[in-house]
Design brief:
Chain lengths: 117, 111
């Protein structure tokens, strides 16, 4: 499976500021995803990022708050803008690969733990 | 109705026992089903996937799929304390455009 790295691994930020999270994959992938996982909760999909097109956002998430870039097939960034304490969460990058068993499999990066004070 | 539902948990089993984790899904056209394990403070790790009705075994893990009942389960045989984690059921729906995750079941294996 693809090896996924994220930077930063964690950060503490002041409200009103913005943080950009980077996701790097060691192979070319078509589909990349950004998730949020709030404490004690499951994963919530923020958006799907495809190279060469605008990101597709899920209900409740907007581009002004979570702008995403996807400049090539191995890299993506997620920015959390104008942060508030409610944005404190783990942000996870994920990629989809076509597996040997004949179906799509999804793998996750290590996550970025964000705390907003 | 939520798209993917799981046992509310937490589930506690003694070491060496079989742990049974259950998941139901609402999209009858779903084709791909996954189980992820997530240790506290870590990201989800894909441990099993299943596409066809029946059982799929991998070491101590067995995934079971029944599309007619819209039910998928994960059995962990000879449970070990290192299996203590949250297990997330995930499904790719008919639209094939994204994976839907269940709320997760917390498993605790007691030595």
């Amino acid at each position: 499976s693809a090896v996924i790295s994220q930077k930063p691994s964690r950060d503490i930020c002041q409200r009103g500021t913005s943080l950009t999270i980077q996701c790097q994959v060691d192979s070319q992938v078509t589909m990349m995803f950004w998730y949020r996982q709030q404490p004690g909760q499951s994963l919530t999909l923020i958006a799907t990022a495809n190279q060469g097109s605008e990101a597709t956002y899920e209900s409740g998430f907007v581009i002004d708050k979570f702008p995403i870039s996807r400049p090539n097939l191995t890299f993506s960034t997620l920015t959390v803008s104008n942060m508030s304490p409610e944005d404190s969460s783990i942000y996870l990058c994920s990629v989809e690969e076509y597996g040997l068993a004949g179906g799509y499999e999804q793998y996750f990066g290590p996550g970025t733990r964000l705390t907003v004070t | 109705q939520k798209e993917v539902e799981q046992n509310s948990g937490p589930l506690s089993v003694p070491e060496g026992a079989i742990a049974s984790l259950n998941c139901t899904y609402s999209d009858r056209g779903s084709q791909s089903f996954f189980w992820y394990r997530q240790y506290s403070g870590k990201s989800p790790e894909l441990i099993m996937f299943i596409y066809s009705n029946g059982d799929k075994e991998d070491g101590r893990f067995t995934a079971q799929l029944n599309k007619a009942s819209q039910y998928v389960s994960l059995l962990i045989r000879d449970s070990q304390p290192s299996d203590s984690a949250t297990y997330l059921c995930a499904v790719i729906g008919t639209s094939y455009d994204k994976v839907i995750f269940g709320p997760g079941t917390s498993l605790s294996v007691i030595p």
